Amino acid sequence: MFIDIANIRLKAGNGGDGAVAWRREKFEPAGGPAGGDGGNGANIILKTDEGLHTLMDFRYKREYKAPNGENGRSKKQFGKDGADIILRVPVGTLVKDKETGGVIVDLKEKDQEYIIAKGGRGGRGNAKFTTSTRQAPAFAQAGSRGEEKEITLELKLLADVGLVGFPNVGKSTLLSVVSAAKPKIANYHFTTLKPNLGVVNLGQEMGFVIADIPGLIEGASDGLGLGDEFLKHVERTKVLIHVIDVSGSEGRDPIEDFYKINEELKGYNEKLAEKPQIIFANKTDIPGSEENLEKLEKEFGEKYKIFSGSAATTENLRELMKYTFNEIQNYENDDEEEYKTFDKEYIPVKTREEGINVYVENDNYIVDGPYIEKLLKSTNFEDNESLKYFQENLRKNNVIDKLRELGINEGDSVFIMNFEFEFFE
Question: Which parts are annotated binding residues for Mg(2+)?
Answer without folding.
Answer: 172, 192
